[in-house]
Amino acid sequence: MTRTLVRHHPRTEPSATADSGSRARDWAEIQERMLAPLYEAVYARLDVGPGTRMLSLGCGSGLALLIAAGRGAQVTGVDTDHERLALARTRLLPAPDAPRSPVSCAPLLRESVPAPDTVPEPYGLITAFTPIGCAEGDDDALVRALDAAVPSAGRRSSVVLTGWGPPERCATEAVLRVAGRLAGRPGTPRGARRDDLENVASRAGLKPDGSGRVACPFGYADLDSAVRGLLSTRLFDAAVHATDRTQVEKEVAEALHPHLRDDGTVWMPNVFRYLVCTT
Fold this sequence. Notes:
With 279 residues, the chain is of the alpha/beta class. The chain has helices at 20-31, 36-45, 63-70, 82-92, 138-149, 172-182, 196-203, 223-231, 237-242, 245-256; strands at 53-57, 74-78, 108-110, 123-132, 153-164, 207-215, 218-220, 266-268, 271-278. α5 links the parallel β4 (123-132) and β5. α1 (20-31) crosses α8, α5 (138-149) packs parallel to α7 and α8 crosses α10 (245-256). The chain is globular and about 50 Å long.
């Protein structure tokens, strides 16, 4: 299993508000890599490589795309976050005068799912790597995204859905509860239910075809990086709007103290579940 690397990041002073560009950079530089073991496990299971045409829903700043493209896949990424998508373009698309990239197929990056009649060849794999199970209505949002994307897939193509694992196996669960409490929704996150992903698959007209669990520990260089990384996930947005960023940062930092190690790093074991479906 690939271990999550802990890196040091320049410290920035917390503020009551954070611009979207700063938060997108925190996602790209701190948080996105936490799910790299999930990406690797899924790609290995589905033998992603040359000949794979993949559509990634919620591609963020492009790490999952970069890993798939490195295996030879032809990838298209979709994300509605303009700042994250801009970082993905910087990461994935070479400058006009840059040497030829070792990646054989240049990724396509879009702000919306392409219409089926604009796709030259059907996708053989659709991934939704943003885990559901913590934010209110995230399952409904995933169903809507799948309804738009699945018509562009070929017959018996693979679709991968992901969610948080059991609360007792996710150390980050207690920290995420801060978001619900500050947003006026005590008790959230509701925790991942065993059949969450299967329910989404059923609503989207997909047939489950196997599942797996992957350990994805969240590791941070220090407390400040942990707070910035977690707030970049968008799971704390409602809490920030209900109070202010400074208050959320303070309470998240307090909730992280049980996971602070003697060397100043923060370490939280987590498990994520994925469901492989077919169209």
